[in-house]
Specification:
heterodimer; A: alpha+beta; 2 domains; 8-stranded antiparallel beta sheet; 6-stranded mixed beta sheet; 26 strands; B: alpha+beta; Beta-Lactamase; Heat Shock Protein 90; 5-stranded antiparallel beta sheet; 5-stranded mixed beta sheet; 14 helices
């Protein structure tokens, strides 16, 4: 098979038709192959506008498979913008894609979706799975559904929007279909070398505490007391009295889980305070040793540079960067400093991505056999090149 | 042996006792040492515990400070974001003078940066309302607000300017429920004279209206009103300009038609004058010939009185012949029937030759003709026509200059032109006559004018000759001081 080609084009034009033309023409000029096997689209246009996108994508690029995801903020090179679109094309790449609605039993629907893809890819070597989703049910069920199909250690990268926390309009594209609640994904079956890493850059603070009892995604007791006491210790009675204040605090000061022989804390924000004082997380309890963590600007920025340095893929062809809205909120006007740092570390490698509320990643890339990971206040970096 | 048994036994006992005592002492010493060590360790543990507590206390202080700072930071960020969004909205609103394009500048992300999820802009057009922009607003609510209820709401808003959903009066309280929004602010879009419409900014997911939101909405609605007023003014201006342009076009067209008519009349007039003059000239030549013969008494001697009258007839016939000739020349030049024969001549030589023609008249009135001429100046002209023009100008100068004065002829070259001026010290021309003196049969009002004879066609002929050479002529004059006739001719006559 011919050499894999990856093309990138983006436009900040607020007029969707012009934006598609600009980005498509730029992308087309970068690649030699006439055939595009997959076109990824990250965009920020309304549902009304999005229908105008297909004609020019078809006319200029005519990809075999199109998958897209609307994002509140887009990242291209050192820029972050709220209106426009990013196109990424893969040529000479064997890839299979699909879509599914996620409105019923989300665990089963996600699992079935993966099985359908795997059936198409039967007998072929699978490299990694890239997916985007938008749903209103428990994210952990969604992740378990994917894991049942893919296995716990299969490379998985993606972004999703959970309607309970992000009720704003989010759309998915699959070829010329627009999905409001569902999943779209592409399973890469080619000789691609990937690096997928997750980190947050949050710094641990205060004493280490021990989780005495927990189940799945709920922490009941820390250091012999109801889990909320751990937060009360730092932030006072108000965390118990005001759910709004608790959510604010837990977002800014998430729990950091400690692992033996691993320098970084893996963080998770409690999303709910139960009446018995237990704390519900978005993901499973990862270890029993926890500390409070704090976002320090410099450390947040350094963490993305560190991730690139840690990557084992040399001379990648593209870097796809998914960041969380929480990190964006904390960096805000310094966000471009992070992108500059990331771009400096990457060199000439094209950088694209976006900011969403949640993203999925393979935690085992951090040398921990912990399976997949939902990051609500982390970032994911995906580096790709042909083997 | 038996004797030593008790002694031995007591010694052993003592030995054992002593040993035990020693061991106890050693143990006690060891225990004391250990206790001391334990105490030290306990002390160290307590110290470490205190350090840890202290560190934890410090962590609490750090977290508390960071939390407070982050709240301030977030508030600042929110305000900066709002201000930036307002600035961008303002830029977008002022960059268009087209109402349809104006609303394209109100982008979803900017509304979101203002701190709202939903936006509705309704404008009043004549007696009805129209939705001009909507973001995340339910269709039923839109329909409701462009109905009669919308007009009532606009009237209510125009008195209150900006209100939150909590400040709705009882008659409009139902709007909160119908809106599908958890919170909103409504403002009239107030122009100087009357409200142009209203604006609603709201949130679908939050009941809280952030601090400063009212001010934000006020700035937004004021900006919107100003832009809409600018557009309206521009439209008015544009329409009146269009109207003016149409009127100018119409006027130009009618002027063009009038000009064409005038040109046609002028042509007919020239043709008529030419034809009539031609017809006049033949009999006049006969009259003039016979009169001349009679005056010369070729047909016999004449009584003195008769001869005098005949001399007058002869003189008047001369004037009439001159007038007809000039009229014919003007008509020919105007109609383009005069063939202009361009040749390169020395203008200095021509002027000197003309001066010689006038030698008797100059002498008769004792006038001094001063020529300021270069040694030579070559120019492409029709020699006979330019000579004619120059004769006319010099003739006029001599005619209107009293005795013993000067007449100056100046000639100079300027770029691609020559400029000739004939300056007299005559009676001068009144300012109101200056612009008319080149018209046919026009004679300026001055006392000398009545005394001097002329056809009123000489200067008109000069102007036509100069025009035929792509030149220009004008006069400058001061009453009582004299006149200066200046003409400019191009050095070459291309085509």
């Amino acid at each position: 098979m011919a050499k894999i080609e990856i093309g990138v084009g983006f436009s900040k034009n607020p007029d969707i038709e012009e934006a598609v033309k600009e980005a498509s023409v730029k992308l087309r000029s970068e690649i030699f192959s006439p055939k595009i096997d997959l076109c990824l689209i990250f965009f920020n246009f309304s549902e009304r506008e999005i229908k105008k996108l297909f004609f020019n994508i078809k006319r200029i690029l005519n990809p075999s498979l199109t998958i897209g995801f609307s994002l509140p903020l887009l990242i291209a090179e050192e820029e972050i913008f709220s209106k426009g679109l990013i196109l990424v094309s893969f040529s000479n790449t064997e890839v299979t894609g699909g879509c599914s609605h996620l409105t019923g039993n989300i665990l089963e629907e996600a699992e079935k979706f993966i099985w359908r893809l795997l059936r198409v890819a039967k007998g072929k070597k699978r490299e990694f799975f890239l997916c985007f989703a938008n749903f209103s049910q428990a994210p952990l069920d969604f992740l378990r559904g994917l894991e049942r199909g893919l296995g716990r250690s299969f490379p998985l990268v993606g972004m999703f929007s959970w309607k309970e926390v992000n009720p704003s309009s989010c759309f998915l594209l699959y070829n010329e279909e627009v999905l409001k609640e569902g999943i779209v994904g592409a399973l890469f079956l080619d000789n691609l070398e990937i690096f997928s890493g997750i980190d947050s850059g949050f710094s641990p603070l205060g004493r280490e505490a021990k989780i005495d009892s927990f189940s799945k995604d709920t922490i009941y007791r820390i250091d012999g007391f109801p889990a909320i006491e751990f937060y009360k210790n730092y932030f006072g009675e108000k965390v118990k009295e005001s759910s709004e204040y608790f959510q604010r605090v837990s977002l800014r000061y998430p729990l950091g889980f400690k692992f033996e022989n691993f320098p970084n804390y893996i963080i998770s924000s409690p999303i709910k305070l139960n009446p018995d004082g237990s704390l519900k997380l978005l993901k499973e309890v990862l270890s029993t040793e926890v500390r409070i963590t704090i976002p320090l600007r410099e450390k947040l920025i350094n963490s993305v540079e560190g991730m690139v340095k840690k990557a084992k893929v040399k001379n990648p062809r593209i870097a796809i960067f998914f960041d969380s809205f929480v990190r964006y909120k904390f960096l805000k006007f310094f966000y471009t400093s992070q992108l500059r740092a990331l771009k400096n570390a990457l060199g000439d490698v094209p950088l694209v991505g976006g900011i969403s509320f949640y993203h999925l990643g393979l935690l085992s890339s951090l040398d921990l056999d912990l399976g997949h990971f939902i990051g609500e206040n982390s970032f994911s970096l995906l580096l790709l090149r042909e083997k | 042996m038996e004797f030593f048994k008790p002694i031995l036994s007591s010694n052993v006992s003592l030995f054992l006792l002593l040993n035990s005592l020693g061991a106890i002492i050693l143990l006690a010493l060891f225990a004391l040492k250990k206790i001391d060590k334990i105490k030290k360790l306990e002390k160290e543990i307590r110290r470490l515990e205190n350090n840890l507590k202290e560190m934890d206390e410090q962590a609490k202080i750090i977290v508390k400070t960071d939390s407070e700072l982050s709240m301030i930071q977030e508030e600042l960020d929110r305000k900066v974001t709002t201000l930036l969004a307002l600035q961008r909205l303002s830029q977008n609103l002022t960059s268009s003078l087209d109402e349809e394009k104006l609303f394209l500048g109100i982008r979803e992300d900017l509304i979101s940066d203002l701190g709202f999820s939903s936006c509705l802009i309704v404008l009043k057009k004549q007696d009805s309302l129209m939705v001009k922009f909507s973001l995340e607003i339910e269709e039923d609510f839109k329909k409701l607000l462009i109905s009669r209820e919308g007009l009532d709401f606009l009237e209510f808003l125009s008195k209150r300017r900006i209100i939150s959903y909590k400040e709705l009066s009882s008659e409009f309280i139902y709007l909160k429920e119908k809106s599908g929004l958890k919170s909103f602010l409504a403002s009239s879009i107030q122009a100087k004279e009357a409200p142009l419409g209203f604006l609603i900014l709201g949130n679908k997911f939050s009941e809280e209206i952030p601090g400063g939101a009212k001010e934000t909405v006020e700035i937004f609605s004021t900006q919107l009103a100003q832009s809409l007023e600018s557009i309206s003014l521009f439209e008015e201006l544009y329409n009146s300009q269009r109207e003016l342009e149409d009127r100018v076009k119409e006027r130009t067209r009618s002027l063009q038609e009038a000009l064409e008519k005038i040109e046609k009349i002028s042509r007919l007039k020239s043709e008529f004058v030419s034809a009539v003059s031609h017809e006049f000239r033949t009999p006049l030549t006969s009259i003039k010939g016979y009169a001349s013969l009679l005056v010369q008494e070729k047909f016999g001697a004449l009584p003195g009185e008769v001869k005098l009258r005949l001399q007058r007839i002869n003189q008047q016939a001369d004037i009439l012949v001159n007038m007809i000739n000039e009229l014919l020349d003007i008509a020919r030049i105007e109609s383009g029937r005069t063939k202009i024969e361009i040749q390169k001549i020395d203008l200095v030589e021509l002027i000197k030759r003309v001066r010689d023609y006038f030698y008797p008249q100059l002498k008769e009135k004792n006038l001094q003709l001063i020529l300021n001429l270069p040694s030579s100046l070559f120019i492409e002209v029709d020699k006979s026509l330019i000579e004619r023009a120059f004769i006319n100008l010099l003739s006029n100068a001599i005619k209107f200059t009293p005795q013993n004065r000067n007449i100056q002829v100046n000639l100079k070259k300027e770029d691609n032109f020559v400029e000739v001026s004939v300056k007299d010290q005559g009676v001068g021309i009144p300012p109101q006559d200056l612009e008319n003196i080149f018209k046919e049969f026009y004679r300026a009002e001055n006392p000398l004018q009545k005394e001097t004879k002329g056809t009123g066609l000489g200067l008109s002929l000069v102007r036509n000759i100069i025009k035929a050479h792509k030149g220009e002529i004008w006069a400058e004059s001061k009453l009582g001081e004299g006149s200066n006739f200046i003409f400019r001719l191009p050095l070459t006559q291309n085509n």
